[in-house]
Specification:
Elements: H1 14-23, E1 36-40, H2 46-58, E2 67-73, H3 77-90, E3 94-97, H4 99-104, E4 109-110, E5 124-130, H5 133-143, E6 148-152, H6 156-165, E7 170-173, E8 192-194, E9 202-204
Parallel strand pairs: 1-2, 1-6, 2-5, 3-4, 3-5, 6-7
Antiparallel strand pairs: 8-9
């Protein structure tokens, strides 16, 4: 009914959103997946990294801004992963990781290629150890869904580069991905979250859906 409907904001499962996106004849503001990442850099504050990585996964499991993949720099992985894994396992989170992760934490199951692309919406977490910031950014831009990604680091230059090169609608430094929310951003009641480039992008409130009408009051003016 394009004569009546200006825009559709689908809220529901991936199947519903995919069908509407494929069949709609009016603009659709949507996101299909929330494959969100937290990257713990080698210059991360240890306590901040623990709090953020635990909160991003376990504060709620079934939301689109919940972390689904944890990336950890190889230099700090041996120190922080055992403690993180202990908390996750205590909370009932199933861990799936790369071979380097499994060498550090024996309770981690082997991750498959599909795990890096999966939005679990459940107490399941994929973990990958990376060599540097380049590899972390490449992983996110390859497997992410352009929803929300966060870096934990005390290095300002690395943080700024992460913000610049990660192509997601919300990017964060030293904060939980769970903050990617219209209400938390001060937009009022959240209408939806968009991972599209145009229009709008990220959490959307009422103002983000407001279009403009230009009214010109003249007195005989003409354009030269």
């Amino acid at each position: 009914m394009p004569e009546y409907v200006d825009v559709i904001v689908p809220r529901g499962g991936k199947g519903l959103i995919e069908r509407i996106s494929n069949e709609a004849r009016v603009p659709v503001i949507k996101h299909l997946d929330g494959i969100c990442h937290v990257y713990i850099d080698e210059h991360a504050d240890y306590d901040k990294a623990l709090r953020i990585a635990i909160n991003a996964k376990t504060q709620r499991y079934g939301t689109c801004n919940t972390m689904e993949t944890l990336l950890v720099h190889g230099a700090v992985a041996p120190a922080i992963l055992p403690e993180l894994a202990g908390v996750y396992i205590e909370k009932g989170v199933e861990l799936r990781g790369c071979e380097r992760t499994r060498e550090i934490v024996s309770a981690v199951k082997a991750a498959t290629e599909e795990d890096w692309r999966t939005e679990y919406l459940a107490p399941i977490l994929a973990i990958r150890i990376v060599d540097d910031l380049d590899q972390a950014i490449a992983h996110i831009n390859t497997y992410g869904s352009q929803h929300t990604d966060s870096i934990v680091t005390e290095d300002y230059t690395r943080g700024r580069r992460f913000l610049r090169e990660v192509d997601s609608s919300s990017v964060m430094i030293n904060a939980s991905t769970r903050f990617a929310d219209g209400f938390e951003y001060g937009l009022g009641a959240e209408i939806g979250i968009s991972t599209d480039k145009i229009h709008a992008r990220g959490p959307v409130g009422l103002e983000g859906l407001t279009s403009q009408k230009y009214v010109v009051l003249g007195n005989g003016e003409i354009r030269q």
